[in-house]
Every structure is written in structure tokens, then in C-alpha cells.
Amino acid sequence: MNKRMHARQTIKAAARCGSEGGFTLVEMLIATLVVVVGLVAVAQLVPTSMMMNANNRSDGAALVIAQKQMEALRSVPLTTNSFKDPQGVTCPPTTTCFVGDPNQPGQLVGSPIQLFNNSPVIDYAQATVPGYNNTYTDPNDPSGAVNDVRWAVVTVVNGTVTGRRIIVGAFRRGMKTRTFPVWLDTMVSK
How much is the pLDDT for 15? Predict the structure, then answer.
């Protein structure tokens, strides 16, 4: 009898194990719905992430261009108030660009400015001023975006030119989303 009981218990145990199955159809539908909702949420983040990446790349490019322009303006000797750039990187190729006017000491000359958080910045809502702007297209940029570079200068005169305050702005035109210009402000003196 012991053997019989043991055989019955083994058969019952085997039957129980065989009756335990996988998921029900309702459980599978709920799991699929959860996965689909998650995938849709992630899929909506991809375009936003790509747009933010493009804007960050644009801001980085504008900053490099503004820095390049600032260095070109800073390198002009204080005894000179104009320069040319045959390559057209910091000044249009056939144009004379200016770095202030010693006849207007203490006056802002060049591109119009506005105050932003109590700091002077280039006002891109105003028209360009000849000799104080440049457009630059990076030859390495596959999008061919045009960068609008403008500057304004305050000349410090104490008998002779002793310094310049230079404000440079770079703005990448043609972006699909709203972007802001990059501004730099520095003082050069003897």
C-alpha cells in the first residue's frame, strides 16, 4: 500500500505540474499595452533630443565664430581703426571693417546694442551697420548655415587711443527652432 500511495502522489504531483501553464491571453494583452505605451513615450523624445542637439551644436559653432571675431578685433593695434581680411573670415573680402572711431571717444560706434540683464548685447532686430558686420559660413558645416556676426566698439581716448571696449555677437540664421545669439564683451587697453 505504501507503494500505491506513493505512485498516486507522484501522478497527482505530475498532473499539477503539467496543469501550471504560461500567461493568459489577458495578461499578454496588458503586458503588450504597457510595452507599446513605453515605446511611444520614448519615440516622442527622439525628435526633441535631436532638435536640442542641433541647437547646442549651433550655439557651440556661434561661440567659436564670435571668439574668432573677437580675437581678430583685439589684434588690431590701438593706433589703427580699420582692417581688411582677404579670406573673408572676419571681414567681407572687399570691404574695410572698423574697430571704433577715435573722433568719437567714449561713444558707442558700430552695431546697435540693447541691454540684456544689465549687459550690453548686439541688437539683432536692428539693421546692420556697414563696416561693423560680417556673414560667415563654415566650410566644414554640411548644413551651410549662415552666421551673422556683428560688433560695436567704444574707443577710450586720453590724448591718444588708450583702449577699446568691444562687444561681439554671433547669430546662426535659418534654424528651425528659436535660438539666441552668442555675445562676448571685452576691454583692450595699453
Answer: 55
